[in-house]
Amino acid sequence: MIGLVICPCKGRAPYPPLAIASLKSWLSKHGxxxxxxxxxxxxxxxxxxxxxxxxxxxxxxxxxxxxxxxxPVFNIDTIYNARLLxxxxxIISFELDSKQRAFVLxxxxxxxxxxxxxxxxxxxAVGFSCYVSNIPYSILLASELRNLNPSIRLFFGGPSVxxxxxxxxxxxxxxxxxxxxxxxxxxxxxxATDLHKNNQIDYNAIYSSNIAPNELASNETIVNAIVDLx
Length: 230
Fold this sequence. Notes:
The chain has 8 helices and 7 strands. The chain has helices spanning 18-29, 39-46, 48-58, 82-89, 98-120, 135-148, 164-172, 185-197, and strands at 2-6, 34-38, 125-129, 153-157, 178-181, 205-208, 220-223. Strand 1 (2-6), helix 1 (18-29) and strand 2 (34-38) form a beta-alpha-beta unit. Helix 5 packs across helix 6. The chain is globular, with a radius of gyration of 17 Å.
């Protein structure tokens, strides 16, 4: 069973999780079991104060980390307040003010709860549909899942993963095992099929053919883009 997760996104409405619902339907059509998990809706109704705080802290327009910085971070300028994210992950260290400490404590409490619930689901793999506003939460949740179950397979897709520095960060820091770049249908079908057939997968990036680079690295692979949208 594969878990398809949408983490809390920017906004004040519980938008339906169309991306992961579509992928769930696609996998089901091919005989693969999965479950769509809408953490955006859950947090909106169960902890609206944290939901609003997430919007303020991570859901604003992107910022830029100078690529000449001496800090051991990537120039992932699609993440707003990335330095705070890296602080929470323990990659860099700086003193938090009282408001930041309160936010981080509440966020970590929620992340731990979500991770424990996902572990109880018994998923062999968990994937995250990532946008600018929810990739920090996705990263933190994946990191906690890794702590709780080192053997679980974690993969990332969505618009944020189309940006190479994001992919490099996810893979280099072992937050994600795989990235699915571009259209998700054939990519997730290949991943799920390979995962079921063979525990050893020799790639960590899958591109849809319409946006794949001209030359693939040894740890990258490609799937056809969908032609018929009927």
